[in-house]
Amino acid sequence: PAEVVPQAPEDPLFGLMRAYKADPSPNKVDLGIGAYRDDNAKPWVLPVVKKADEIVRNDPEANHEYLPIAGLASLTSKAAELVFGASSPALAEKRVASVQAISGTGALHLGALFLAKFYKIAGANRTVYLSNPTWANHHQIFTNVGLPIASYPYFDKSTRGLDFEGMKATLRDAPDGSIVVLHACAHNPTGVDPSPEQWAELAQLLKEKRHFPFFDTAYQGFASGDLDRDASSIRLFVEAGFELVVAQSFAKNFGLYGQRAGCFHYVAAPAPSAAETTTRVASQLAILQRSEISNPPIYGAKIASIVLNDPALFAEWQDNLRTMSGRIIDMRKQLRSKLEELGTPGTWNHITDQIGMFSFTGLTEPQVLKLREEYHIYMTKNGRISMAGLNSRNVEYVAKAVDKVVRE
Ligand code: PMP
């Protein structure tokens, strides 16, 4: 096949990271990074993860055997409780099939593969609707398994908030039974989430249209600092009786990025036969998993499982989550107030209105390039900044640089 393989472009985000690394300026700031950084711009190993890691390493029974195909059961059961709530009727009624996956990306892929193979209900459309914009990898993940993709409006450039009317109109016009990918909280890249009332309206609309919700939850506990609140969109849809799926990542909220810990969950709609449906689905997920990865990785899964199963460690984890989300919220406040103090043209309330790790600044591509070339500040071309890249030492420098390029 050598002659027919074309050169593929470099992943834009990883290209940006490379350019940042190669920049010798002492003032350089990395606002492209999709991982949490502490106030010293360093990766943060959560203290609770350090403790759990100690427990894993000191376990005299520990070995490097394979996990079961569906993964570590002590992880997947608690992971399901984390998303759906421990008292969820869906769990009590055995309507949830949970499979450990290769972090959020692997969970999305497993879900996409499952739908590509089985979402063939008479009259239903197989098109996957993605928000515009969305996490860039969504396009490839669904396209790779042969599902057609389309997009629904999401970000309103003029308000730098949600284009709710546009979103609803497109989902209403979409063929019945379409697959709709929804970010459970802390939408990447915009930092804009629907309000609880808007989520309720969306649930009603998707129900009427018989659309199939595919939730992506990569930031639970990271957005508001409250695990339950960050899962409320998914829980609302489960309560509304949807059949749906969830791709869950532990990369950000445990800081387990490279360990690739995550889960895929299938929820059957409430019906007398729902438990039996779920068993059938689980059997098919096991077959797909077997051919893809045989069995998921063990180390990060053990760490997450220890924390989720121990009430004291769980409480400490919540505390660690509040540290991360709190620092990010603080950086939002500081950036906004510095821009307002400088009288930077435009409005900056969206910086604090948006939530989660990212903010869509509204900076244009020429402004983004100028920030990179003249000020050594790196962000994606669409003007997305990672709030975790800001800290008490660089936030003023960034605000002043933004001020300069906006005024030019
Ligand atoms: N979904 C979204 C929206 C994300 O932002 C990310 C992380 N960048 C993921 C899924 C999955 O990441 P991972 O595979 O590292 O869990």
TrEMBL record:
Q: Outline the subunit composition.
A: Homodimer.
For this entry, the protein name equals Aspartate aminotransferase
Q: Where in this chain does the record put each Aminotransferase class I/classII large domain?
A: 27-401
Q: Which family does it belong to?
A: Belongs to the class-I pyridoxal-phosphate-dependent aminotransferase family.
Which PROSITE patterns does the entry mention? AA_TRANSFER_CLASS_1 (PS00105)
Q: Which co-factor is required?
A: pyridoxal 5'-phosphate
Q: What Gene3D superfamilies does the entry give?
A: Aspartate Aminotransferase, domain 1, Type I PLP-dependent aspartate aminotransferase-like (Major domain)
Alphabetical list of NCBIfam families matching this protein = PRK09257.1
Give the E.C. number(s). Answer: 2.6.1.1
Question: Where does this protein come from, organism-wise?
Answer: Humicola insolens (Soft-rot fungus)
Name the lineage: Eukaryota, Fungi, Dikarya, Ascomycota, Pezizomycotina
